[in-house]
């Protein structure tokens, strides 16, 4: 299985609950390498651009409200089979449906405020990483 990258976002609820360090610790303990991270407060247009595919969904404006409600932390992660491995680590979108021992099961309040985002395909991961970390924004390999 090839080394792959995925994009995580520690969402505003994660930062507000002071779980940034704990969630990153669990991610690293699961074998992911943190390649880049950048805490930032998204503008509405940046959040809308990231979630563009959901624009017509009924939850879109609430999602943008939430994602702009405080700082979040986009993170580039690397591991074998990173996209699927990360989705397994975080659990289902709705914490009520997430497996025991997953990050969302342990910390998320509901489907909207669910602590962390993870790319859902290798192709989306590439686009999402480029959205937050353009040319030169990922430091050279330090392993
Ligand atoms: P995320 O993985 O960041 O990508 C899309 C987000 O939309 C998802 O996490 C959820 O937080 C949010 N979402 C999906 N479905 C719903 C829903 N029915 N109600 C509220 N938010 C939702």
Characterize the structure shown.
There is one protein chain. Helix content is 38%, strand content 17%. The protein is an alpha+beta fold and 143 residues long. The protein has a 4-stranded antiparallel sheet with strand order 2-3-1-4, with helices on both faces. It starts with a strand and ends in an 11-residue tail after the last helix. The mean pLDDT is 97. The site of adenosine-3',5'-cyclic-monophosphate has 8 residues, from loops. Adenosine-3',5'-cyclic-monophosphate binds next to loops.
Which distinct ligands sit in these coordinates?
adenosine-3',5'-cyclic-monophosphate
Approximate shape: globular
Physical arrangement of strands within the biggest beta sheet: 2-3-1-4
- Largest β sheet strand count, sense and barrel closure: 4 strands, antiparallel
Radius of gyration, CA atoms, in whole angstroms: 14 Å
Average pLDDT score: 97
Instruction: Tell me the number of strands.
Output: 4
Can you write the helix and strand succession as a string? EHHEHHEHHEH
Q: Could you tell me how far the N terminus lies from the C terminus, measured between alpha carbons in angstroms?
A: 19 Å
Low-confidence stretches: none
**Amount of helix:** 25-40%
Return the structural class: alpha+beta
